[in-house]
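Q: How would the structure tokens look for this protein?
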Amino acid sequence: MTHPSSNSSRRGRNVAALSWRVTLLCTAFVLFLSAPPPPASAQTTIYVNTTDDPTDVQDECQTVTDDCSLRGALNRARLSGSGAVITACFDPALVPGAPACPPRVKMLTARERGWDEASGMFFIRPTKNRTLLLAEGAALVDFRQGVGTWRGPVDNRIVVDFTGSSPESAFRISSSNNVLAGFEIRGAFERAAIFIPGGTFGDPAEENQIGPGMVLAHITLGNGILITNDIANSNRVFGNWCGVNGDGTNVAPVFDDCVRISEGSFGNVIGDLAPENRNVFSSSELGSGILVEGPEATENRLQGNWFGLDAAGNIPSQQLQSGIQLVNGPTETIVERNVISGNDNAGLAVFDAALGTVIRNNIIGADPAGENCVENLGYGITLNGGPSESVIEDNVIRCNKSGGILLAGGSTRDNVLRRNRFAENDGFPIHVIQGANRGVKEPVITAAGETEVQGTACAGCTVEVFSDPFEEAIAYEGEALADSEGNWRLRKAEGFTHRYLTATATKDLNTSGLATHMEGSGEIPPTPLPVTPTITPDGPTVTPTFIPEETRTPTPPPTMDPASKPTIYLPWSAFNAEISVGG
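A: Here is the predicted structure in token form.
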């Protein structure tokens, strides 16, 4: 059992470590701003003009007329000391709309041995177990630029295919400010298709950008992306597909996790709130969409992704084991505005002494519109074996086979649930067992009318009231505070949304299960209890309205689309470049 003081001690160590890192990064940033502007060579563009992978690339890519493989282009970018943009020029007869090549630049044509007419793709097939290395920083490998109008991964034209070999990884990123965008990776890997560990001698791997447009498909061994140790931090992964390719509906699973963050990697952002920049994590043989592990893996943000669906929002023939797993005590992970549905186990599972997890505004167990069931076969959310100080709020949790939220184990404590909405789950909407959340008891409803409800709870508890046309909790009605005797009352002059009322009680950040439902049709007897005003949640409240029982389909939950889509800026200023994603 984890004593509360050990959590505070760990938090202190994490804060101290992060403060040191922030100070170091701020100092580096000030030095960067005071440095002279980069030389013109920083904007060099290198064109890959062959699908071959020669053993010796020292003489490649020196001029635009030289042969230039992908490995040769990466080598030339490394030797330049200032990075480069690596792309390709395509034959417009094969890639309609491809822009004209610059003078003397050789295009990729059907004469290349890697051209595959059936798929319309160019396959780069490394000849040996040799990882492609990004070691000096500022290498932008972006094959979107040569295709003209690029709308998403469906328009990719390059496949880096390690099928038949098993290197450590396809790409190893041991430096900062690199970008991979607009191509597919296949094969079997000891670690991952994209491995971001930092440099052997402590060189950081920071501010790298994976996406948009990376497709991780037919990965028969290893993870899709592995970001590991504390010198690999603050990386972004967005706009990619995992476990599907082609038009985004062709199932092509990875073996392990689509993304794994481990060994102290911190501050990474997986996903984006603009819909066109979401990651789609569709299928895996053994793994999850995202796995974050270890107590030093802190302040990672998982946002705006789809889990267990293909790129069209359909249910693939093979799915993930779980959408998200947090294991071995990661800290301060934020999980926000994702769709987590159709997984073979829990939608989101948090294990061990995970501290300070925030799970907010997700759809769990339904399609992206919230209109149809896409059930997770386990619970929607599981906290088991020690998670503490979690905040689970404003989620729509529907159609999960085992139930809505499970909190289990005596060391699972101080986890607050706020304004979550539940419908069509097969088990308990909220199941608190084995002494979890310090054994806080659910409240009791003693009387319920059309405009008032009252009951008892622990003294001083915050009571959240919900209504439902059946016996779950689809509509949040407001909250009341129990007095010193444990009595509470909530009045809504306009009346409650649905006929059955229930409630939770929260004491010192420990939230209970749901009270036994009571039909809100009786008369409330006179009582000297004060009436507690309705306290509405922060921001607008959207309550789905159910239509007849045989349909049981609520209206969509709040949209997750932002007011406007962002422009994605390359993560270093040397190129002074920006790419507008999505056309």
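Residues 4-34 form the longest helix (31 residues).

Residues 1-42, 528-583 have pLDDT under 50 and may be disordered.

Upvote if useful.
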